[in-house]
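User: Here's a structure from my thesis project, written as structure tokens. My advisor, Dr. K., wants to see whether a designed sequence matches the one we expressed. Can you design one independently, without my sequence as a hint?
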């Protein structure tokens, strides 16, 4: 009995020692030495303008319908004339027509949100303008910050105004798929969510996870996308596949059914322009790119790259799959490399393993002049959720830039490390563990805390937004959602 007691006490002592050893914190990267090439985040600095837009919308709802329709008709004529002038030639990013087009569009959006029968016209006009701007941008220096600012302000700003219209009219009944550019392609095709896609196309998307919101909003140019997939269609069987890098399992091949099943709030189809010199030499270049990456993903396991280093191809993050594939065939995507320069954002992303803040962010692919925007798809039932997610994340990143940190339950670290050890064993035998390959136990605990923070702010925003709509009779616009989120984040 005494011997058994001794064994028991020794076991307890060993476990206690192991527990305290496993409490030793990870080595922390000094983020003070990290910079993003002297860049700075884009800032709208237009709070008064957004409030004015809301007041114009309220005013339009109160005016007699005939008067609102008359003003809208006049502004539509002016808008079409401005577009014709701009589309007649190739213009500089600083062309004086662009701010006029933008301001006229915002005014029209206020009116159309109040009188939705012109929504289809507004969407088509928006698509015409962005096609023309994308066409002009092939002559612009995308490494110039002023150029990138102008592109972002126009394309993202007009897109945001369009979505405000969709949400104010009826978010449940608008058509999810919106065709933008009929870019020719000679590669095999298939249909996803009612959109014809071709082999070699890039699908930028946004999922519903909290980390998706962080990736899309943590950029110097906050966007709506957090993931990139490369589509490959077998030329013999015509079976489509998606090649994408997942946090949980690295580079993987998915069927269209699996891609659709993985919840998407939105996605955009992008295609290499057919008039590029490389495409004129070989119209099947995108097919060769896609097939190469498909074969590579079949041949070897490529783990997920949490560091986001697109120069190191031994592991890959989502943008790198398409980037690496096209680079091997002479096409350098992301002509303007993405930057993350906000100190708080750098601190938080480094908590999840990111070490490279001059990189390739999914949302920035929209501004690459080598690519045409073929189509865009938004889930009508979750577009508003997407806006609330973004607002909550914007508020959290403001907290990060004010010095807030992501804490974790220190006493859970030994347990998390034990789970991580089991996950490591599963990974060695081709399985997928609870904690992703390449993510430490500490980072997993921080992610758990991060998710809870985002959920808490989001729940409060949803509650305040519902009360706002009941009181005012319309959904709060994005700037108002951000205000709600900032107020909710104060309690964290």
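Assistant: Designed independently from the structure alone:
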């Amino acid at each position: 009995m005494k011997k058994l007691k001794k064994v028991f006490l020794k076991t307890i002592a060993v476990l206690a020692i192991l527990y305290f050893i496993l409490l030793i914190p990870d080595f922390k990267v000094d983020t003070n030495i990290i910079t993003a090439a002297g860049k700075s985040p884009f800032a709208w600095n237009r709070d008064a303008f957004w409030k004015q837009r809301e007041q114009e919308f309220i005013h339009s709802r109160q005016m007699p319908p005939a008067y609102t329709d008359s003003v809208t008709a006049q502004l539509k004529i002016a808008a079409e004339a401005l577009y014709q002038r701009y589309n007649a030639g190739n213009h500089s990013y600083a062309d004086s027509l662009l701010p006029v087009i933008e301001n006229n569009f915002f005014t029209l959006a206020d009116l159309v949100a109040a009188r939705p029968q012109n929504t289809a016209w507004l969407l088509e006009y928006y698509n015409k303008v962005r096609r023309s701007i994308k066409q002009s941008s092939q002559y612009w220096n995308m490494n110039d910050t002023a150029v990138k600012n102008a592109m972002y302000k126009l394309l993202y700003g007009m897109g945001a105004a369009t979505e405000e219209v969709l949400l104010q009219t009826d978010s449940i009944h608008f058509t999810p798929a919106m065709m933008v550019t009929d870019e020719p392609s000679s590669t095999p095709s298939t249909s996803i969510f009612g959109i014809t896609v071709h082999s070699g196309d890039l699908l930028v998307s946004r999922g519903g996870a909290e980390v998706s919101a962080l990736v899309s909003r943590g950029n110097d140019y906050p966007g709506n996308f957090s993931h990139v997939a490369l589509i490959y269609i077998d030329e013999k069987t015509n079976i489509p596949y998606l090649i994408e890098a997942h946090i949980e399992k690295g580079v993987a091949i998915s069927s269209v059914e699996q891609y659709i099943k993985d919840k998407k709030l939105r996605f955009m189809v992008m295609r290499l322009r057919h008039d590029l010199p490389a495409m004129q030499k070989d119209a099947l270049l995108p097919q060769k790119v896609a097939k190469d990456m498909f074969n590579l993903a079949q041949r070897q396991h490529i783990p997920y790259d949490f560091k986001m280093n697109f120069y190191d191809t031994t592991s890959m993050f989502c943008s790198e799959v398409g980037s690496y594939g096209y680079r091997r065939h002479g096409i350098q995507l992301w002509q303007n490399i993405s930057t993350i320069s906000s100190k708080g954002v750098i601190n938080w992303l480094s908590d999840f393993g990111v070490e490279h803040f001059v990189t390739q962010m999914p949302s920035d692919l929209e501004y690459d002049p080598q690519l045409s925007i073929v189509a865009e798809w938004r889930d009508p039932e979750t577009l508003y959720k997407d806006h609330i997610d973004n607002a909550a994340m914007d508020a959290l990143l403001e907290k990060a830039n004010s010095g807030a940190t992501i804490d974790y339950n220190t006493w859970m670290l030994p347990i998390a490390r034990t789970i991580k050890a089991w996950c490591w064993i599963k990974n060695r035998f081709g399985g997928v563990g609870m904690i992703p390959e390449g993510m430490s136990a500490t980072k997993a605990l921080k992610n758990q805390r991060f998710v809870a923070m985002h959920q808490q702010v989001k729940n409060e925003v949803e509650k305040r937004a519902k009360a706002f709509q009941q009181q005012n009779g319309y959904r709060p616009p994005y700037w108002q959602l951000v205000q709600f989120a900032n107020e909710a984040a104060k309690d964290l």
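When you compare it with your expressed construct, this may help: The CA atoms of residues 173 and 215 lie 29 Å apart.
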